[in-house]
Amino acid sequence: MKNLFKIMLGIWVLTGVQYQAFSQNVETDPVSKEAISSLQHLIGSWSGSGWMMGADRERYEFTQTEHIQFKLDSTAILIEGQGKTHDQIIHNAMAIVTFGGEKDQYSFQSYLQNGRKGEFKAETINGNFYWYPREDIRYIIRIDEQETWFEIGEIKKGENWYQFFEMTLSKNAQ
Q: pTM for this one?
């Protein structure tokens, strides 16, 4: 019986040590938290409308909602957006914004309902949030003092940027 107890104790100790060796470090990265927390003005539920230029050079209008929240002890932001035209979903996306990694910069990871996804460069310039799905395309989000979200999308042709997208949202009461 003593030997069985020693064997069981040995297994328990080894399992405990093994569990601690593979457990997650739960300390929050202060640099990532500070960078992501600087985007506090994006957090909340938003709704409004916008327009975009199609490949046919026609302007299409839509209504939009955005639900944005901190995740992982404020080291990540989850964005869920949905756009509709005449009650038909035309845009359904999710994005995760983080900071850090090898490049020590913002990362904008986007996921669409059609299976497309990507990781893109993002940055803040003068308090505005920029993200770049391609080197010649950028989206710029500005939140004003009245908590109005104003976002544009632009494409670069030569040395000039041309707008193809605009969205204005209001923060919903919580």
A: 0.82
